[in-house]
Design a protein that fits this description.
With about 300 residues, the protein is an all-alpha fold. The protein has one domain: Farnesyl Diphosphate Synthase (Orthogonal Bundle). It is built from 16 helices and 2 strands. It has a two-stranded antiparallel sheet with strand order 1-2. Strand 1 and strand 2 form a beta hairpin. The two termini are about 25 Å apart. About 45% of the residues are buried. The mean pLDDT is about 95.
């Protein structure tokens, strides 16, 4: 049943946090301010949704958790790096992240930039140490995640987002931006488990590929909705920041109800992609519903 995965979330989150602890330099290691900022960026109350997607996809494909730890940790490091940069004055200029001061507010802009810069290569160091995986899988994982965070993935999506401020985009243009900006790393989380599965049938790969794309777009639309209807104390960041920056978002361009309807459509399509896996897809089903129904 889908609710059983909820009972395993604490254990999976502990695995990720343990891996992050091992990967990150100690705060008292020189340069101490930089290392302290890196740890602040990572251990600041995140839900670990992307690592949980790695483990859930692994359950679906019966991949051993020990093989999933490296991509789960690496993807969370990349996610943390991206949030530090997103919050900077040159980007979204946010003061709060998960209810706490953003890194550039807690430290300073230069330290925030350097902390994020250091988190990104650390992710690939973690992947390079993956042992016991199918032949070629570590290199494939590095390629997957570099593509997800590069100019044709997350970074490119952020560039499009900045350029779109004050502009009217079509739904297709907007969803393309979301697919890169937010969806690329979520998509990579799902495909990580695929790369750790030997002789995966093409139809299984295609189904998870479609699921990852749809749920990645749905995640960002839900984020946009929460920015409009959410409360700062609940969502952990300033509500209404998208409107203040005149960002092109689903609610701004098409309204709240259309945004909710599109989220529901994407969720239904994503869940349909999982039908071929039967009960083994229950963890992914649970997470997909959590992503669309979450309150923060």
């Amino acid at each position: 049943m889908p609710d059983k995965f909820k009972d395993r979330i604490a254990a999976y989150t502990a695995r990720v946090d343990s891996g992050l602890e091992r990967a990150l330099p100690a705060a008292d290691t020189s340069p101490m301010r930089l290392h302290d900022a890196m740890r602040y960026s990572v251990f600041n109350g995140g839900k670990r949704v992307r690592p949980l997607l790695v483990y859930a996809a692994g359950e679906c494909l019966r991949v051993e958790p020990r093989l999933l730890d490296a991509p789960a940790v690496a993807i969370e490091l990349i996610h943390a790096f991206s949030l530090v940069h997103d919050d900077l004055p040159a980007m979204d200029n946010d003061d709060l992240r998960r209810g706490k001061p953003t890194v550039h507010k807690q430290y300073d802009e230069a330290t925030a930039i350097l902390a994020a810069d250091a988190l990104q290569p650390l992710a690939f160091s973690v992947l390079a140490k993956l042992d016991g995986a199918p032949s070629g899988a570590p290199i494939q994982l590095v390629q997957l995640i570099t593509d997800a965070c590069g100019s044709t993935g997350m970074t490119g999506g952020q560039s499009i987002d900045l350029d779109a401020e004050g502009k009217t985009l079509t739904a297709e243009e907007l969803e393309h931006m979301y697919l890169l900006k937010t969806g690329a790393l979520i998509h990579a989380s799902i495909l990580s488990a695929c790369l750790l599965t030997e002789n995966l049938p093409t139809a299984d790969f295609d189904a998870l590929n479609s699921f990852g794309r749809d749920i990645g777009i749905a995640f960002q639309i839900k984020d946009d909705i929460l920015d409009v209807v959410g409360d700062t104390d609940v969502i952990g960041k300033p509500a209404g920041s998208d409107e203040s920056l005149n960002k092109a978002t689903y609610p701004a361009l098409f309204g709240i109800e259309a945004s909710r309807d599109r989220c529901d459509e994407l969720l239904a399509r994503a869940l349909g992609s999982l039908a071929r896996f039967g009960d083994s897809a229950a963890p992914l089903q649970w997470l997909a519903q959590f992503i669309v129904e979450r309150g923060r």
